[in-house]
Every structure is written in structure tokens, then in C-alpha cells.
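Hello again, I could really use a second opinion on something today. My current little project is about how a certain protein chain folds up. You're getting the sequence in one-letter code plus the fold written as C-alpha cells. Here's the protein in full, and shout if anything looks odd to you:
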Amino acid sequence: MKKLIALVLSLMLVLCAVPALADTLTMATNASFPPYEYYDGEEIVGIDVEIAAAIAAKLGYDFAVDDMEFDSIIPAIQSGKDSFGMAGMTVTEERAQLVSFSDSYATGKQVIIVKEDSPITSVDDLMAEGAMFTIGVQVSTTGDLYTTWDLEDEGKAVINRYPNGNEAVMALVAGKIDCVVIDNEPAKAYVAANEGLKILETEYVVEQYAACFKKDNTELLEKFNQALKELTDDGTIPAIIEKYIPSNGAAAE
């Protein structure tokens, strides 16, 4: 009898040590990237937030957002701290070695913000022989990656890296840098909020946005992709994107 009781107690201890299955999906993001994720008062809103919340609801999970610096997102996913990352994140070969990506849910483009009287009139000016402009980027974004590969590594520019896009734009306004390379949608918001700035007509690069997952979390990735497809097919996700980036060019509410 004593052996039986001891066995039962041992089993109970083992069962108690097994963590309960998570019923909340937590999205790692950097909430300084309008209209994909940004603060509206105390609340984080935006395209990524609404898409992720819709997917979580469809899969039967509660939903939470974890705001952090952009370059902390992939480590948070790798460590299992958060369920997945969405932050207007572009799929690149380098990132794909660290995390798995979902199907793409949006297309973005990197553009160049300059002062209205800037000598920089196109991407070609940055690439020109003898050019040596100082370019502001948000650290670890594709704006950072592409300008590093194309310009800094080739000795054609100095790259100043900032924690977020707003700090890069403020540096441009203050005359500390010559331009900012950043995603088109937040670029429009920054230019609208700061007189004397403009976006060049030629984009720097076109890219695909996707959510990122821990490499071995294939079950959640597959469920996410299926929900993403169904919500795209039924018009839910296109409506979310249209809400923030109207196809008629009107300002999003």
C-alpha cells in the first residue's frame, strides 16, 4: 500500500510539473511603425495588430501584444518568450536562417525621405560615384540591411542607426543626416507630421511582409497560414489593410 501511495504521489508531482498549454498568442512587435503598429493613446493598434487578433480569434486563442525594440523581436521568438512576431517584417534569407516565416500578408516598399531642398533627387544619387551621404535608418530593419549592403559596405555612405523611425526623422529635421530610408507607410506619416520633408518618387526596394515563428513551432505556423488564407479569401484581411491604407489614397482614420 505504501508503495502504491508513493507511486500515485510521484505521478501527481510529474503531472503538476507539466506546464499548461498556452491559450494566449502573444505577438512580439515594435509599436513605432504606423500604420502597421503604433500607439493610439495607451493602446497599440494598426494593420499587424488587427490581422494577428483576427487570426488568434479564428484559432480560438486569446491575444496579447508585447512591444519591444525591433532588434529584440527575433530573439524573443527564438527563446519562446512570445508566440510569433509581426512588425512590418520583411522576409530575408538572413532572417530565414533564424526563424520560420508565414505566407506574406502585405507588400511594402522602402523609400527615401529628404528635406525639400535636398540635393538627393533619386536612389541613383546615393549610388553615384563619389557620393558619401549620411543616411538614417531604424536599426535591424531592411532599410538598415539594404543600405549597409549597397552603400556602407561599398564605402559609399555613412549609416546612422536609430532605435526607431521617429528618431531617424528627427535627426533629418535637425540637419544631422542627409536622408532616411524607411518603409513607405510610416514615411508618409512622418512627412505629414514634419514640414519641409518629402518622399522621393523612386522607391529603394520592394519587399514582402510576413509573421515570424520559432523554427520548431511548425504546428502553430501551419495553423496561422491556414487562418491567414481563410481570412484573406473571405475579405477580412483586405478590409483591415484598406482601413489603414485606403486604395483611393484618402487618409486612414
